[in-house]
Design brief:
By secondary structure, this protein is mainly α. About 75% of the residues lie in helices and about 0% in strands. The protein is built from 2 helices and no strands. It is elongated and about 60 Å long.
Length: about 55
């Protein structure tokens, strides 16, 4: 419990640091790449593994 208290105190001491522009770009690229790849996998699934129902 004492360890959690120390961590909590250290987190409260930290100052707010906004994201750098390069970090924002990396987050955006990662999200877009994830959505594109998910769409590609869905297309791949429907194309090569059609539902036989």
């Amino acid at each position: 419990m004492a360890e959690e208290q120390k961590i909590s105190e250290e987190l409260q001491k930290m100052e707010y640091e906004p994201l750098l522009p390069v970090e924002k770009k990396l987050i955006t690229i990662s999200l877009i790449l994830g959505v594109v790849l998910l769409g590609f996998l869905v297309w791949l699934s429907y194309t090569f593994f059609p539902h036989g129902g």
